[in-house]
């Protein structure tokens, strides 16, 4: 198949493109250097190919507390990006199936995190703007499907983890930040200080599991929104203990700063719908996934955990 991928150089994009090419597809990789998605004409240069699938992964955001300081920019930039992609899809690539990424932070913490509630209730205030741009993206799918019959699939991932995360200095998702801090403590004797009391809970999915699931659903399932999660969550303390055991650092030395931003207290996606479409779903065990991720961190430690001058 001819497949176009936006956000192709990101953590997910890199893994997805590599796997798509490995199984024989021709992949057209878009990134901020070869296509400025904020421009309405940026995608016209790719009109010469009739794509079978379009994976829309691009989004303007970062992990941590980034959303607290850039709500206006996030609204304007992501709305531009998403509108331009949807418009190009409808006008020039209506034969293609659009597979886009939602976000678990679009769910209201007051409701079960099940697909029927994706557009219901209020997201948490700290992530409100980004969450609403993702809701609007999904609303665009629904509208274009209703009027023009376009095929889509919206996937809502838990936090993804695994080897080959970005090394460009951006804020990291919590699991990578935990690993980095604990390795630094092991190497340089620094204090490990984690945000919150450590009892906030998170769900994570191994990157290669997500890619395999996404490709299977993209091939087999039309016009649905589907959560992709592990179906279970663990406390930050639990993750930290597992990492400490792997690295050989005393967990009792870890400190917790209860004054720092922690986001949602709990975030675990309901995955009944996923298991309906993939009944034999099998995921990488947490301990094995963390082991592979930590191994990669050690290999990249000169970039990820350099000694301060």
Structure description:
Keywords: Oxidoreductase. GO terms for molecular function: GDP-L-fucose synthase activity. This protein has 309 residues and is α/β, with parallel strands linked by helices. It folds into two domains: 2-159 and 203-228, NAD(P)-binding Rossmann-like Domain (Rossmann fold), CATH 3.40.50; 171-202 and 232-267 and 284-304, UDP-galactose 4-epimerase, domain 1. It is built from ten helices and twelve strands. Helix 4 links the parallel strand 4 (97-101) and strand 5. Helix 1 packs across helix 6 and helix 5 crosses helix 9 (286-299). The longest helix is centred in the N-terminal third of the chain and has 22 residues, at 71-92. The chain is globular. The protein starts with a strand and ends in a 5-residue tail after the last helix.
Task: Give the percentage of residues in beta strands.
Answer: 5-15%
The tally of structural domains comes to 2
Give the overall form. Answer: globular
| Oligomer category | single chain
Keywords:
two-stranded parallel ribbon, alpha/beta, 309 residues
How would you concisely characterize the structure shown here?
By secondary structure, this protein is an alpha/beta fold. The chain has helices at residues 11-22, 66-69, 71-92, 128-148, 174-188, 207-220, 236-247, 272-277, 286-299, 301-304; strands at residues 2-6, 26-29, 53-56, 97-101, 152-157, 159-161, 193-195, 201-202, 204-206, 224-228, 234-235, 255-257.
Topology:
Layout: E1 2-6, H1 11-22, E2 26-29, E3 53-56, H2 66-69, H3 71-92, E4 97-101, H4 128-148, E5 152-157, E6 159-161, H5 174-188, E7 193-195, E8 201-202, E9 204-206, H6 207-220, E10 224-228, E11 234-235, H7 236-247, E12 255-257, H8 272-277, H9 286-299, H10 301-304
Parallel strand pairs: 1-2, 1-3, 3-4, 4-5, 5-10, 6-9, 7-12
Antiparallel strand pairs: 8-11
Keywords: Oxidoreductase
Domain NAD-dependent epimerase/dehydratase: 3-229
Organism: Pseudanabaena biceps PCC 7429
